[in-house]
Every structure is written in structure tokens, then in C-alpha cells.
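Task card 7
Instruction: Convert sequence to C-alpha cells.
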Amino acid sequence: MSVGALWQRAPRPPVADDLERDGIAATLAELLARRGVTSAEAAQRFLHPDLDQLHDPFLLFNMEGAVERLLAAREKNQRLAIVGDYDVDGVSATALLCAAFRACALEVETIIPHRMEEGYGFQPLHVERAQEMGCEVIVTADCGTTSHAAVEAAQAAGIDVIVTDHHIPDAPLPGSALQINPKLSECSYPFDQLCGAGLAFKLAMAFGQRCGREFDARQFLRIACLGTIADLVPLVDENRAIAALGLEAIGPSRSAGLRALIHQAGVQPPVTATDVGFRLGPRINAAGRLGSAQEALDLLLCRDPREASALARRLDDWNRQRQKEEVQVVDEARSVFRGWPELPPILVAWSERWHRGVVGIAAGRLARELRRPTILLSVDGEAATGSGRSISAVDLHQFLIPWREDLERFGGHAQAVGLTASTDRLEALRSAWQEAGRRWPEEYFQQRYEYELELSPREVTIGTLEELEALEPHGEANRQPLIRVGPLRLRKPPRRFGKGHISAQAEGEGGAPVALLGWRWAERSQDLRGDFEVLAYLERDHYRGGPTLRLLDCRAVS
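Output:
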């Protein structure tokens, strides 16, 4: 049982009453209102994403200039290099731009940084590589906003730079570099939450339009949706359209690479945001975490089914290795923390045994489990490189800013940071961070769950499920609704399966049947005794065909 977990009902927005009066069902009206929908017209747009919800790409600041430079490169037969990041967003953005540029008769090379050997971002060494390839233009994908040294190096070498990135700018880029970034103060684009793949999609469509190649948007949306979903940008407005339409296009895709990836991951159409977030995305990411993201890029661009199958198996192998490395880091770090007399407000640990490519996801798991901001670092000689993940109450990036000068590299946002520090400074930094964290109130660390609906067991039906499925795809700013259901009582003991999972059949008053599913709930199965209620997500049971409640928490009914 989750001791001390606080269950709170999300307040009903007043505008939900207006939506109900406009003919929207009460449950759906309440859920839509919490997602920023304020009118019946907006509700229709939210529930039925369409191509007309995509904004004109030329509204992005510098888009016109970027397209003109690319047209000049095509006219002069100049070679172009795309420098992308090594995560899902960067790889999908690079693949999308590469496919679009080649379709428009540009000669394109790709450069993906190696996480272990080069680290993150567009760097002067990539300019040198582009020079060796004979490139006269560099386009970045999901990186470059703060790469002042690399931009200066490119301009000194006579190479023009077009940056496409969504990270927060720190200062204007030098010289004549063109930056397409909706977060620029000069940019008046109507939506500023596009990710790298979303911006690549906009540039591809704009360039195709000016080249006389009217691309079918869906052929690029199926790639753009990978980065949009995996990069955890808010799935509202244009991002919702990109994700929803892209997922629709993935299933019937003729792309050998996508088909092989989907098959290797065991995904059955229709492909969902959950499939991308937990099956497809991790396999693309795994190559960049443990090896070279070039293999993931090659897969997305691959047209040969046999080669695509081999690459997909390779990514699957990387993902299995990533899972092993992650488990090692989580187990060892958890052991360190549990060996302390008490948990400090912020958890910091490091080891020479930990793989640098997985410390971020391991930190995320421990932050959720232990309800503390967590920073894990991989030590390599005199330098330690790692990542931090936070809890909702703590802006970790803002918290660490006073120590920016003590760190060799630092960046990120409220919930996730990356950093490099001198190994001999780690003890002092940990002590300073823990001391500063003692100012946080104790309630920051209390487990809190905010649920959106309260259903009786009789209301857990296929009809309710279909109503909630209208809100998909789920993601940031459109989370899957959390539901409170009870009282319940088990019909028979839970069945254990897999690695610590359970399934169970329960019933409510009058015998209303309810199916329960608990991932990694084997150790908690004893909590499902007597009369109890649950917090859960209502999902479709693809094996039995009906609705099931995926458990998040439970407690006894007194």
C-alpha cells in the first residue's frame, strides 16, 4: 500500500458547463475543459485533428531566408550537411530533412554526434567533418541554438548555417546564421512548442512547396510524430495534429524501415502514442545511448526490407543492452540511497561502473520511486557526466543555476538537466545541493495523485472507454485521465505473470465485473484485500476485448 499517498479530485473548470450546454456529454466536457478547450468549435478541432490545423510554415521567423538559401544550393549544385541530435527527436528530424532534401534534388550528407565520444550538440568538429565532405551549407536538426563556437567555425570556413531547433536561446547566433526556432523573441509563429522533428517537418514542407514538389504531408508526419511524442512536448494545438495524423499514417506506411521497426517491437496496428513512447522510441534511442545513432537514422531512411530487418534487430539488441545497463544503475543507486540514515531532499550519486548513456532514464525512475530530485553521474577519470530528473514541485534547472560556474557543462529545463563536473568536486557539490534543498517544505515529497473522474464499477464499460479514447493521442498537457473506482472486492486471488505483473477479476456492488491489470504489482497484490478502491487508467484489453483498469494506486475502504 502506498503509505501517505494523497488522492485529490481535479477541480471542474466552470467552462465545462458551457460545453455541456453546447451539447457535449458531461464527462467529455469536463475533460476537454481541463485541456484548455473553451467552445464547441474548439472541441471539434481537438477531437478531430486534421491537416487544416497545421500552420503556414512561412510564419516561422527566418523560414523565407532559409528556403531561399536552400534553393540557391540546389541551383548551384552545392552539397549540404545535416547535423542532428542523437535522440529520437534529432534522428527523426534528420531523417525527415534528408528525405525531403534528396527528393528536391539536393546532395545531402548526414552527421549525428556520437554521445560517448563527442557529447551533445553542434560542435566545431562537425564543421570540420562537413568541410571534408565538401559541404557549403549546414542545416542543424534539434540542436544548434547555443552552438556559437560551431557557427563561428562554419562561417570562418565559408559554410552557411541554418539552425532548426526548439531549445531556449541564450543569445543571438553570430554573423549571418539563420535560426528557425519558435522560441526566438522575434518569432510570431502562433505555436511555440514544436519539437525538432516538428520544425524539420515545417522546413521540408516549405522547401517542397517552393521547389514545385507538393509533398503529401502524411508521408513526413509519420516521421515527425516519432520525435513529437518521444520528446514529450505538449500534445496540444499543432503538436496534437502532428501526433494524431502521423500515427494514422504509420500503419499503412510503405517505409521498409518503419515496417521493420514496428514488427521487431511487436507493435500491432493501429500504432498508438504509447507504442511510440514505450516500444518504438526506446529502440531508436538505444542506439544513440549505447552505440551510434547512425544505425537508427539508417533504419528510418532504409528502403530495402532485408537490410531494414537487420537494422531493426540491431536496434532491438541495443535496447536489450540498454535495459540491462539501466537496471544495474537503478539497483546500485537505490542501494546507495537506502544505505543512508535518511533520504536527503535531493539524491546525488556517481560511479565509474555506470554507463553514461542510461543515467538519465535511471535517474527518472528513482525520482519517481523515491519522490526526490535525483542526479546520477558516470565517472570517467577526472570528469563525471550525468543527468538529473526532478519531481513536479522542484524546478531542477533553476535550482542548480547558482552552481553553473562550478560545472563544466550544464543545461536542460525544469524537470530534466544534463551536466558535467570535475570528479573531485562531486562531494562538495552534493553537500551544497543537499543543504540548499533543506529549505523545501516536506509536502514537496509527499506522493500526490490528482484524478479526473470518479466512476462506479457499473460505469467501467466499453462505452465509457470509447468516450475516453476520443482524447487520444495522450502525452504532455493531455495526460490519460486518471480514474477513481470503488468499492471493489476480488473474485479470486490475482494471477501473476511476466516479471512481477498481475491480472485480477474484481466486482462491485451488485456483482458488476471489473478487470484489473497491475504492471510490476506482484509485491503489492496483498493490498487488494477486503473492500478497496483504486486509482487507475481505463484501457482496452486487446486480448479479451473489453475494458480493463491499469492500476496506479489502491487503498482499503473503511
